[in-house]
Every structure is written in C-alpha cells, then in structure tokens.
Amino acid sequence: MKSSLPKRIFQAGLLGFYRNRTVSLSSVMILTITLFILTAFYFFRAIFDYTLVEIRDKVDVRIYFTGDATEDQMNDVKAKLLGLPEVKSVVFTSRNQAYADFKDRHANDQLTLQALDELGDNPFGASLAVQAKDTSQYERIAESLSTNSSLLGSSQSAIDKINYFQLKDSIDKLNSIIGWVNTVGFWISMIFIAMSCMIVYNTIRLAIFVYRDEISIMKLVGASNWFIRGPFIIESMLYGITATVLTLIISYPITMWISKKTVFFFEGMNLHSYYLQHFFSLAGLLLLSSIVLSGVSAFFAVRKYLKV
Amino acid sequence: MIYFDRVSKKYGSDSTVLENISLTINQGELVSIVGHSGAGKTTLVKLLLAEEFPTDGTVSFHSDDISKLKEREKTNYRRKVGVVFQDFRLLPNKTAYENIAFAMEAAGKHDDEIREDVPHVLELVDLKDKHGHFPHQLSGGEQQRVAIARAIVNRPEVIIADEPTGNLDPLNTYDIVQILKKINDLGTTVILTTHNKGVVDSLGRRVVTMENGKIIRDQKNGKFSM
Hints:
The structure holds 2 protein chains of 2 kinds. By secondary structure, chain A is of the alpha+beta class. Chain A folds into 2 domains: 5-55 and 175-306, no CATH class; 60-167, 2-Layer Sandwich (Alpha-Beta Plaits). In chain A, 71% of the residues lie in helices and 7% in strands. Chain A is built from 11 helices and 4 strands; from the N terminus they run ααβαβααβαβααααα. Chain A has helices at residues 5-19, 21-58, 71-82, 95-105, 110-119, 138-145, 164-209, 212-220, 225-261, 271-277, 279-303, and strands spanning 61-65, 87-93, 127-132, 159-162. Chain A has a 4-stranded antiparallel beta sheet with strand order 2-3-1-4. Chain B contains 7 helices and 10 strands. Helices cover 35% and strands 27% of the residues of chain B. By secondary structure, chain B is of the alpha/beta class. In chain B, β7 (158-162), α6 (170-185) and β8 (189-194) form a beta-alpha-beta unit. Chain B has a domain at 91-155. The longest helix of chain B is centred in the last third of the chain and has 16 residues, at 170-185. In chain B, strands 6-7-8-3-9-10 form a 6-stranded mixed beta sheet, with helices on both faces. At the A-B interface, α1 and α8 of A face α2 and α3 of B.
C-alpha cells in the first residue's frame, strides 16, 4: 500500500515534535508567553471598551420643559427627537418622578430635604434625557433644538432650557480623549501584533536553525523541498497549537483571580465571565493566528537552508 | 557515465581549487581519488552532487549537464547517486531503520517496498539487530554502515564515498571497504575519495591522484603514491 505524501509529512512532523523535545519545549514556552501577552492585551481592550461605553452611557443632553408645557407638546418634542438619525434614546422624566428621584438621591442629606419641603411646591420641571448614538453628535442634536431651527415648530415654546451648552466643554473633552485613545489603542495593537509576529518568526527560525545540517543531508539524499519543508511546518504548527492550549489554560485561573481583585474597581465587568463568554472566539483567534504565524514562519525559515 | 570536461572551480579571483580537470568515469568502475588535504577531492565530490557548480567547463551525468539541472531534476538526479560522508551525516532523531527508510520515502517508494527493502539492506551491512538504535547509540563503524545502507537502498547508479573511513579504526575501515567492493561487484559505480594508503592499495583498482587542484596521475590498477 502506498503511503501518501501528506500522511508521511504529517507523521514526520508529529514524530519530530515528540522526539525533539528540548527544542519543542523551549519554542512552545516562548510562543506561550507571546500568546499570553496578546491575550492580556485582548482583555485590556475589553475592559477599556467596556469602561468607554460606561462613560458614554452616562453622558446625555437633558431638555427641561417649562412648568406650563402640555403633555402634547412634550410628546411632540420626544417624537421629533426620536426621528433624528443621531438620537439613540429619549427618556422622559415627569415632574413627580424628578421630585422622587431627587429625594432618593438625597435620602441621607436631611438639610437638603428640609429645604425642599420648605419650598412647598414641586420645583422640578419635566425633562427629556437624550442619548446620542455617538458623543460627537450632541452638538448637532442641540442645534436641531435651538430656536433657529424649525424642527420643533410650536412646541419650541415648551422648552425651558437645554443643558448641552453647560456640558459642551466636558463633552468636547471626552470626544477628544476618546479619539486620542482610539488612535493610540490602534497603534499599540499594531505594535503588539508586529512584535508577536517577530517573536514567533524568530523562535521558529532558531528552532529550524538547529536542523540546518539535517536539511542539507535530506537534500543530498534526494528529498524534495516539500518533503523536507512539510514536517517542519507541521512541527511549528504543533508548537502554536500547544502554546494556544497552554495560554487558554493559564488564562482560566488568572482571570478568576483578577476578577476577584477588581470586582469593585470594574463595576459590572467580570473578567472571568468575559473570558468564559468569549472563550471560543478567543481560542479561535489564538489558534488561527498561532497556526498561521508559525506555519508561515517555518516556510520561510526552512527556505534559506534548502538552497543546497 | 560521468564526464568532467575541462572543469575549473575558483572561489573569488585568486583561489583556484580545481584547474582544467578532465575525467571520465565509466559504468561499473571503482575509482579511488587520492590526494593530500586541499588537493580538490571534496570539491570534485561537491560538483558531482550539484552542491557546487564549476566556474568553467561542464560536469555531466550521462548526457545531462549537472550544473544546468532545474530543482526537480536535481532532486531526481540525487536519487540516482548514493552518497556516504566521512562524518556519516545521519539524521540524529531517526533510528537506523528510519534513516534508511527516509531515503526511500523521499524517493516516493511504496510502504510495502520500504518494509521489504530496509531490513534487507540492514542485513547486508550486518545491522539487522540494531535497526531501532538512534545514531548516538551506534559506534562510528555502525553509523557508517547505516550511511552506506541509506546510500544503496534506492539502488543508485553511482555511490560517492567521500573519505568514508576517515573517522574509523582499521577493523571498521576494512569492513567498509569490503562493503563498497561488494556493492561495486554487484554492478554499481563507486567513486571513493581517500588518503588512506592501505585502502587504496588493498582495492587494486583505478586510482586518480590529485594535487593542487589538478589530476597528476590516472592509473588503471594503481597504488597510492604521492
């Protein structure tokens, strides 16, 4: 029975991985460290994105109505706002709700509550909390609501004030921070990926450098380039697969430990749950990148010694 | 069968290793190429193995110019030429059996053929009991016998043995020479480079003597003389 070339190549790669244990172990160790750094960066981005979303969700523009605004006017304003493409959500807060919310917020502040009682009447107006799809769109929403705009028509008179202009500086600053962080984050990602590629390539190159004499022997006994190169590519891919498995195993207790330590710090974000929820996408990403990187690295690293 | 036609090999402009070599080796011959270190014997072997290419002249195998072979043709050519080195050059992470089988696998031989032929050549070099040993578990003589087994397993037309006894004691040297002689008696052309007088004299076959990159003597039933 004839043994196919792919089968022979695969068997030789598997045997090489097992028999060259010292080289395999050291290569797997370096790849594991590299993949772990990438995984840490993956988690860091997740925490960062989560924090950014949290901050963004806390920002809104509030429209306060005059005391004599009618329900129809308020509903009209809400409906027109919801019709704007920049608007993500509009939440209505009635006068009574605003009054109750204020009392809840100051439940431990007796002095403020006394002052409120002395006023006798509910001093709060109804309001609409408007959230934009992106923080950079608040200005456009505010402009649409200004007196110069024809958007609201007769309902315009029901608006007492819009707090965007008080928040403008903070929102602008947040926008510039988000833009800056995204740019920096992108370049850091690029640097990390480039560094990982270099580490993987050099690790594989060193591993194959050990076999340079063997490669020339194989050439001289009449082995074709693919018959020589194939097992090294398989062996290198096995380094990548083993390193991925080790990285995923190590990440389990580490994310668990970090989650326990940061439960108060990242309110609502549990790193360990995030790891479990995204296990398959993370595993797929690591596996794919390590297999492709190590395979391609082996291809080029062997090529140099095939010129015999 | 093998023709060196006015072959010169230079490294840089002032280092001439081979100068105007013309040599014909016929099918079935056993030729010893002798000479001091630096005489050009190993360069001659490298040209034959297509590891190096001549600066001038041509090296041909039958009618093919070796230096003009394309990658695939070079691989096929090397399957017709068995090679044995002074330092054995076995694959250290493969057993004796696997080292020999590798040459057959590389040539695309069937598994059945490999299972049949490898034990046969191991028996021929008297290493049947050590088929599972790794090179580091074998003596120098045994390693060289594995290398010879690897070289002959694909039934090549030529065996090139570059100083095959250089690292061996007299007893192992005798064994290796006897094996090479036997291979030649079976019809395979053998090219042997050596500076071992005893080996050359015991063979009593054609001797080509080299000095400073030139052939200074070519005797049909020669002796070692420098």
